[in-house]
Amino acid sequence: MMISCGLASMFYRINEKMREDKGKFMLPDYWQEHRSYYRSICDLISEVDETVSLITIVSIGNNLFFICVQLLNTMGYMETFTQAFYFWFSLIYLIIRTLAVSLYSADINEESKRPIEVLRAIPRESWCLELKRFTEEVQYDVVSLTGKKFFYLTRKLVLSVTGTIITYELVLIQFQQNDDISWTPC
């Protein structure tokens, strides 16, 4: 989470500087400087991703595995209040921790796409080749942490994984209800 916050804040700073100049006439040197800074942040994120991507994939995989195991255990009976409290507390903590890590990591991608708002508001008379390059980089490059390039940590991924886990829980509930019906004695 700390790495993600730091990297996203670098994009936030460049976005704030560009928002101050939104809609103003700027020379091509201004856009070259900002594109260069943007590119250096992207390169830094790429290097950090190379270093932490194995940790990322293990962390995300571990969290999702334990969420699914905990959800599977929701079908069991809790004998004491302490057991039930510990179980639900640990499940909620695990879900919040996983969501926090994922959403903080997805902020990198979100902040990397924000310059497009400013770039689209540029007056026609200040449009230049450097601005076109900058716009294409922001639109088409996927800047985010990855899990060994298997997946990109974006909000879209977080939502799809959340939907999958909810579907998994609903299927478990349905199978649990079917087992209760089919095993009752006559």
From TrEMBL:
The chain crosses the membrane at residues 54-73, 85-106, 157-175. Pfam families: Trehalose_recp (PF06151). It is a multi-pass membrane protein. It comes from the Eukaryota. It is found in: Cell membrane. Its main location: membrane. One of its GO terms (molecular function) is sweet taste receptor activity. Keywords: Cell membrane, Membrane, Receptor, Transmembrane, Transmembrane helix. GO terms for cellular component: plasma membrane. InterPro entries: Gustatory_rcpt. Belongs to the insect chemoreceptor superfamily. Gustatory receptor (GR) family. Gr5a subfamily. This is Gustatory receptor 13. It comes from Propsilocerus akamusi. The lineage of its organism: Eukaryota, Metazoa, Ecdysozoa, Arthropoda, Hexapoda.
